[in-house]
Amino acid sequence: MIVIILGVSGAGKTTIGRLLAQELDWPFYEGDDFHPEANIRKMHEGVPLTDEDRQPWLESLRALIQRCLVTGQNGVLACSALKESYRQYLRVDDEVKFVYLRGDYDLVATQLRQRHGHFMNPGLLASQFMTLEEPEAGEEVITVELGRTPNELVHEIRLRLGLGSASSEIAK
């Protein structure tokens, strides 16, 4: 199974994805690591990416997902997947599961301000929300509401994916 943690920049994809992967003892993949250098420069400069900019990135992610599935390797991937067409492109098999980290603009902006050392210009948050196509019921995406601790969110994700709960009690 490949679990794709999706949402706008600052939603907590990396934090939640790493924690989920750690609990499951699965590899974690950071979607940002698959962006071409030109995309990283654009985002750092505050220039929103176009669909054309995102295509090589999506192709790299799709290839990773296919490699994992062919070799029987589970994994967790943090990836914005803001548009329904991107999610459909990455859904190469029924073993690809999507989890959407949903939060309003103010909550995500607060989380984004607390993040350090990331190339994404915080000024792009508005464009991320404008680009976002929230998953609809027919897409088979698990929606998890932000505003709780990472451990609480991971616990919910595991239960909703049928992967059991954490072996240890949720940290308070």
Question: Would you mind describing this structure in some detail?
Answer:
It is a single chain. The chain is α/β, with parallel strands linked by helices. It has one domain: P-loop containing nucleotide triphosphate hydrolases (Rossmann fold, 3-Layer(aba) Sandwich), CATH 3.40.50.300. 44% of the residues lie in helices and 14% in strands. It has a 5-stranded parallel β-sheet with strand order 2-3-1-4-5. It has 7 helices and 5 strands.
- Number of helical elements: 7
State the total count of DSSP E strands. Answer: 5
CATH architect. name: 3-Layer(aba) Sandwich
Task: Tell me the name of the CATH homologous superfamily.
Answer: P-loop containing nucleotide triphosphate hydrolases
> For the CA atoms, what is the radius of gyration?
15 Å
| CATH level 1 name | Alpha Beta
Average predicted confidence as pLDDT = 89
Largest sheet: 5 strands, parallel
How much of the sequence lies in strands comes to: 5-15%
Query: How would you sum up the global shape?
Result: globular
Give the SSE order as H and E letters. Answer: EHEHHEHEHHEH
Count of distinct structural domains: 1
Point out poorly predicted stretches: 167-172
Helix-and-strand structural type = alpha/beta
Share in helix: 40-55%
- How far do the termini sit from each other? 29 Å
Strand order of the largest sheet: 2-3-1-4-5
Q: Give me the CATH fold name.
A: Rossmann fold
